[in-house]
Amino acid sequence: MSKFYQGIFYVAGSLEYEGVDNIDRRTHELQRICRSVKNSAFLHHHVVIVDGIAIAGANGWYGNTIPSDEDTEKQIEQHRHEDLIYIKSTLEKLQKHLDVKNIIVLSNSVPGLPLYFGEHPSTVETQLSLDLLLPVDTERKISHWVYGTYGKVVDTHINGINYINNSSFKKNPYWAKRIEV
User: Fold this and answer.
1) Which of 120, 90, 94 is nearest to 107 (CA)?
2) Per-domain boundaries in the chain
3) Cβ contacts of residue 160 below 8 Å, gap of 6+?
4) For the chain, which terminal residue's Cβ has fewer other Cβ atoms within 10 angstroms, N or C?
5) What crossing angle do the helices spanning 70-95 and 23-35 adopt, rounded to 10°?
6) What is the pLDDT of residues 50-103, one digit of tens each?
7) How far apart are CA 155 and CA 153, in angstroms?
């Protein structure tokens, strides 16, 4: 992909962690791999600012179901809370950042229940959704939220934010979606 695109912004998803017994170790492995790929940015708790647009990424771990043992479930719960804290603090900092005109949030997880369109998994009932952090966007800089995990194509606007999902989910051929900000 780095041969065909000027830049790749990558957020690890459920498949990258499937069957893993140590989430931190896998994350470090993915960071190392991404460093070796030209023009790529691993957005795990990182922000890239390009032409006034901040691109922030996190897995989110909301609604993710990864077959695992009890220890892995505890790790996922810990990482879910870490991602919520990261997204909140990042959005707060970017509100007053003079170089940032728009924010794009990238997450593996579906941001909230409305974006499941009535098909939400039962696992989300006890979890805090990522969209609970939207009140932090006091300057209304979030223009797009691009996410994965959901099997249907989504391109919808809710309260001024363009929510986009174009997961491949074994679609053949798969066509990447072009997003203009």
Assistant:
1) 90
2) 8-165
3) 140, 143
4) N
5) 50
6) 999 999 999 999 886 665 677 778 888 899 999 999 999 999 999 999 999 999
7) 7
From CA 126, how far away is CA 94, in angstroms rounded? 29
User: Could you tell me what percent of the chain has a pLDDT over 90?
Assistant: 59
Q: What is the pLDDT at residue 65? A: 62
Tokens for 120, please give them.
Answer: 């939400």
Cis peptide before 173 (omega within 30 of 0): yes
Global confidence as pTM: 0.90
Answer whether 49's CB lies under 8 Å from 99's CB: yes
> How many alpha carbons fall within 13 Å on the CB side of residue 82?
13
Residues 143-169 have pLDDT tens digits of: 999 999 888 889 999 999 999 998 777
Angle (CA) 136 138 141, round 5°? 100
Contacts of 139 (CB under 8 A, 6+ apart): 95, 96
